[in-house]
Specification:
The complex is a heterodimer of chains A (about 500) and B (about 475).
Chain A lengths: L9 H29 L1 H11 L7 H21 L3 H8 L8 E2 L7 E2 L1 H13 L13 H13 L8 H19 L14 H18 L3 H12 L14 H20 L38 H4 L12 H19 L8 E7 L14 H4 L3 H11 L9 H4 L2 H7 L2 E4 L13 E7 L4 E6 L12 H12 L5 H12 L9 H6 L4 H8 L4
Parallel strand pairs in A: 3-4
Antiparallel strand pairs in A: 1-2, 3-5, 5-6
Helix pairs in contact in A: 5-6, 5-10, 6-7, 6-8, 6-10, 7-8, 8-9, 8-10, 9-10, 12-14, 14-16, 17-18
Chain B lengths: L8 H6 L8 H11 L7 H21 L3 H14 L5 E2 L7 E2 L1 H13 L13 H15 L8 H19 L14 H4 L1 H12 L4 H12 L14 H20 L40 H4 L11 H20 L9 E7 L14 H4 L3 H11 L9 H4 L2 H7 L2 E4 L13 E7 L4 E6 L12 H12 L5 H12 L8 H4 L4
Parallel strand pairs in B: 3-4
Antiparallel strand pairs in B: 1-2, 3-5, 5-6
Helix pairs in contact in B: 5-6, 5-11, 6-7, 6-9, 6-11, 7-9, 9-10, 9-11, 10-11, 13-15, 15-17, 18-19
The chains are: A mainly alpha (about 500), B mainly alpha (about 475).
């Protein structure tokens, strides 16, 4: 309409139209900038929320009704198929119940017990880590314990331990099919790729499935594998382990009911190979032959001392060492004298977070863990409380941190190192380096320290009898006649503690 | 000179290794056969340490917020609330997630459900979840038919948008089965919409669903394939419910972030685009790109060769007696796109048969059409069909891309006398370029639904869907399904 300013004097017309053009330009720029700033994920969320019935056109209404009709029809017909009946039969597993660790008042169908217990295991990033990288035990144990409680065959402790090891071994074998797996991940979160396979293998073992059924359990599980790394450092990450446990168990049950998948799932690039850029599978040796050797025999796991991503452990050890050195060198050393902290770490985007806000981000932040160590002289479970994360002293120290990724620092849990350099206002500089933290497979936790970690953790919800019962059962598991006794100890809560945790939440 | 023969996995596969030789079988065998005595003392010791540590961290982890949230979710979802209908199964009700699962499996069980471009099966991933969610809602607060229809369309739209982020998606898939990639996302979006979640929760629902996405193509043409759709529907529903309880995930899951893959993990090339805020001119993709509906229960690619072969059948039957005899046929040449998982010379199961150019062409050549009955065990094992199958050759012309929008199917039959008969199909009836009429669609629905429901219910279903946008209460739809 500014083009129709016919009745105005020419010079004013020109000014008005120029102004209008500039205005239009800035509006466009603003809209572009806004949409750039908004982020694609956000735009999808906004659209899903805001779309209203008024946006449905006749064309769309008509076509979508045809789609619904057709879908209902094929669905109704499909209820006559074998595969449907197997899926329906699957509901039987939901009539059984299994224990929830640390709860005396509730049980759930085994798949969901496996889910929630698996989530618990990975909820604080405190569970074991292997090389090549994954969190092997959390994907397997919750499924096995849940399954064991429902089996009429009442498996022994040794049955449980064997199945557990099958689940670990399969994960280890699968990771060795790809060179990519040896480095800190970038695309798929490893527990979501191999974890579900390990759970399926372990569950199949405990169920006593035939060789063919075991293969199909793996094939079915593969269709449940693979979650993107982007959900690491968020509240959803623990679901990767929970779902691995759950869906592996599901796969084994479905295989038992006769469901079949692709019998060459592990052989094909379009099978498990889809999760890797390079994929070179090899057969598993006959376990009866002399050629078979458990991977766990040669490659131990790392147990964490801190509930944070494994890489943080090198960093914390280095930061504590540097802090110690400074305190020794200058007896009136005070943290406010720190001018700059330089961290030399391996390159990995998802654990490089300069100013974490949530506990999940904090557990995946080189900067946060280094600063916590420097401030407090230790990093513990309590270091990730919201109050601790939000401390102003911590935030101030965070602003002095610089991260460098030297070329010789390889993003692999077998080869990486961390270095912390502290420079003070007085011009002093102190550097410490950690090549192998205490708890790494090259420097394993002593049995005493491992049990101590367990006691501290378990005592947060179990009474003494429960804590000691679990230690006893696991310690002697090869001789335990019925492994489901473990479930009863896991439910021995201290009543007061249970009240504290289950009320006032959500 | 010595040349070392390089190990080539594809060559291994062509040789059809015996079960004992495959990697997968070796794993199966190991799992099944390994015994306690195979556990060494080192392994015993180390694994017990792992078990102990794992339980300990699990116990302390049971005090976390995320754990509590999920526990409530499971209690609520999987208690004894068997409230959701199962298609065609009077007297059986399941929890919402299981109902979505089994109904999704039913929908894809015969590969009879709709197909879109870029390629996926959009409705089966969305409808079961939305139905289950509607069943969950109290009787006084059921969604209206229009709310239901809107949620359904949101689920379809999101899938379409996501597939347009990658050129790879335009072609017949090779790596991940598309319903497993975009299906959970669509289901999550639809359920989030029906639950009226806020924008942030909707984003989180998508992000949670992304961690549940992705299954390899290798399970296509097996009995497990239908679970891809069942799981897409179920897991998307779960993602939305978890988001409604406050679970959070990556706020950048759809965006391209170098070094940390989100939804991009499932594609080789990935260029995401933001979705426009809805406004009164918002064009749903379904407006521009219609849906393909299948006339018989097999992979979409089969429909081209079946139509082409049917036209040759007509020519042959016109010439002589009503039945085709394999003895008349010397050679059958199929000109089809190159796609490994639908190239099966001698399928053995119904699942393989639904994914076999050769099988569908020969069935149509023999019978004049392919129907639900063509895939029964008896039909699959017919000797005259087998005779025809052994005369088939495939060619993959350069102008025939593996793309549902561009491909064609050609059948060339050389008779024993030397005559050559040709049939070609560029667009089968049911493709989005040549859509089924409403009568044809209803006829297909009646044929299907009447196998498990009484006619009265079948007609009421047709009516309810037809009037869906005018129904005050979608209960009218929900109550006719079983």
């Amino acid at each position: 309409s500014f083009l129709k300013l016919r009745n105005f004097p020419f010079h004013i017309k020109l000014v008005c139209s120029q102004a209008a053009v500039f205005f239009f330009f800035f509006v466009c720029l603003f809209v572009c900038l806004f949409s750039l700033l908004q982020g694609i994920t956000e735009s999808f969320g906004a659209a899903i929320h805001a779309l209203g019935a008024s946006q449905l056109t006749d064309g769309v209404i008509n076509r979508s009704k045809r789609m619904m009709l057709d879908t209902l029809g094929v669905g109704l017909l499909g209820t006559r198929t074998a595969v449907f009946n197997k899926a329906l039969k699957y509901r039987i597993t939901f009539c059984r119940s299994s224990s929830i660790w640390g709860r005396s008042d509730i049980t759930l169908p085994p798949c969901y017990a496996a889910l929630v217990n698996g989530i618990a295991v990975h909820s604080m990033d405190f569970d074991d880590t292997w090389h090549p990288a994954t969190h092997p035990s959390g994907a397997v144990l919750p499924a096995l314990l849940a399954l064991a409680e429902t089996l009429p065959s009442r498996p022994s402790g040794l049955d449980l331990l064997l199945a557990f090891n099958v689940g670990i071994e399969v994960q280890g074998r699968l990771m060795r099919f790809s060179r990519e797996a040896y480095n800190i991940p970038e695309r798929f979160h490893p527990p979501s790729v191999v974890g579900v396979m390990g759970s399926a293998a372990a569950s199949a073992k405990l169920l006593g499935l035939s060789p063919s059924q075991c293969s199909h359990a793996l094939a079915i599980a593969a269709s449940s594998a693979g979650a993107p790394l982007a959900n690491a450092a968020t509240q959803t990450k623990p679901f990767h382990i929970g779902n691995a446990a759950r869906r592996g168990l599901e796969a084994a049950w479905l295989a038992q009911m006769g469901l079949e998948g692709n019998p060459s799932m592990l052989d094909m690039d379009v099978g498990l190979g889809v999760y890797y850029n390079d994929y070179s599978p090899s057969t598993m040796p006959d376990c009866a032959s002399g050629a078979f050797r458990w991977i766990l025999e040669d490659q131990d796991v790392a147990f964490k001392r801190i509930p944070a991503h494994l890489a943080m452990h090198w960093l914390v050890d280095a930061a504590l060492a540097a802090r110690g050195k400074l305190q020794e060198a200058a007896w009136n050393f005070d943290l406010s004298q720190i001018q700059r902290v330089t961290l030399r770490v391996p390159p990995s985007k998802y654990i490089n977070c300069p100013f974490p806000i949530t506990e999940h981000q904090a557990r995946h932040s080189f900067q946060f863990n280094a600063c916590s160590a420097l401030l407090d002289g230790k990093v513990t479970v309590a270091s990730f409380d919201p109050a601790q994360i939000n401390r102003s002293a911590l935030k101030e120290l965070l602003s002095k941190v610089e991260v460098k990724t030297p070329a010789d620092n390889h993003p692999s849990f077998d080869k990486m190192y961390c270095e912390v350099q502290i420079e003070t206002a007085q011009g002093e500089s102190c550097t410490a380096r950690c090549n192998t933290f205490y708890g790494h497979w090259r420097k394993p936790l002593s049995q005493e320290d491992l049990v101590e970690k367990f006691i501290v953790n378990a005592s947060s919800v179990l009474c003494t009898e429960g804590v000691e019962g679990v230690i006893d059962v696991i310690g002697n598991i090869e001789k335990v006649t019925e492994c489901s006794v473990l479930g009863s100890y896991l439910r021995m809560t201290s009543n007061t503690l249970e009240k504290v945790y289950s009320t006032g939440m959500i | 000179h010595f040349y070392k023969l390089q190990k080539c996995p594809t060559i291994k596969m062509l040789r059809s290794p015996t079960p004992e030789e495959t990697v997968t079988a070796s794993f199966g065998k190991f799992i099944s056969k390994v015994k306690p005595q195979h556990l060494s003392s080192v392994v015993l010791h180390r694994s017990k340490r792992m078990v102990l540590d794992s339980i300990g961290v699990g116990l302390i982890g049971s005090t976390t917020e995320v754990f509590e949230m999920v526990l409530q979710h499971c209690k609520h979802m999987y208690g004894h609330d068997n409230i959701c209908s199962v298609y065609g199964k009077r007297g059986i009700k399941l929890s919402p997630t299981l109902a979505a699962f089994v109904n999704g499996v039913a929908t894809h069980s015969m590969d009879f459900d709709d197909t879109w471009h870029p390629a996926t099966h959009p409705s089966g991933a969305v409808l079961p979840g939305v139905l289950a969610l509607s069943d969950m809602m109290p009787a006084s607060r059921k969604p209206s038919g229009l709310d239901f229809l809107l949620a359904f369309n949101v689920g379809i739209e999101i899938q379409g948008r996501l597939m347009r982020f990658s050129n790879e998606a335009r072609n017949i898939p090779k790596r991940f089965h598309p319903p497993t990639v975009v299906g959970p996302m669509g289901s999550a979006a639809a359920c989030a919409r029906l639950l009226s979640l806020d924008s942030s929760q909707c984003s989180h629902a998508l992000a949670i669903a992304a961690s549940l996405a992705g299954a390899p193509m290798a399970n296509a043409a097996t009995q497990s394939k239908p679970l891809h759709i069942g799981n897409a529907s179920r897991l998307g529903l779960e993602a939305a419910l978890l988001a409604s309880r406050g679970l959070e995930a990556s706020p950048l899951v759809l965006d391209a972030v170098a070094g940390v893959a989100g939804f991009s993990a499932f594609y080789e090339d990935y260029k995401p685009q933001p979705l426009d805020s809805p406004h009164d001119g918002h064009a749903f993709l379904l407006e521009e790109q219609d849906m393909g509906f299948k006339r018989f229960p097999a992979h979409l690619g089969m429909h081209w060769v079946a139509d082409a072969a049917a036209s040759v059948h007509k020519l042959l039957v016109g010439v002589g007696p009503g039945k085709i005899s394999p003895d008349q046929v010397q050679d059958i040449l199929l000109r089809v796109p190159l796609s490994k998982y639908i190239n099966r010379p001698f399928p053995e199961s119904e699942h393989e048969a639904r994914h076999s150019f050769q099988f569908n062409a020969c069935s149509a050549l023999l019978d004049g059409e392919v129907t639900v009955q063509s895939f029964t065990p008896g039909a699959i094992r017919r000797p005259e069909l087998h005779a025809l199958l052994s005369r088939v050759r495939l060619e993959h012309p350069h102008d025939n891309p593996a793309n549902f929008n561009l491909m064609y199917g050609e059948v060339q039959v050389t008779l024993v006398g030397g005559d050559i008969l040709k049939g070609r199909c560029d667009t089968f009836y049911g493709h989005w370029r040549n859509p089924l009429t409403n009568e044809s669609l209803r006829k297909k629905f009646r044929n299907n639904a009447e196998v498990v429901l009484p006619s009265a219910k079948v007609e009421r279903l047709i009516e309810a869907v037809d009037e869906l946008d005018r129904l005050d209460d979608c209960q009218d739809l929900l109550s006719q399904l079983q």
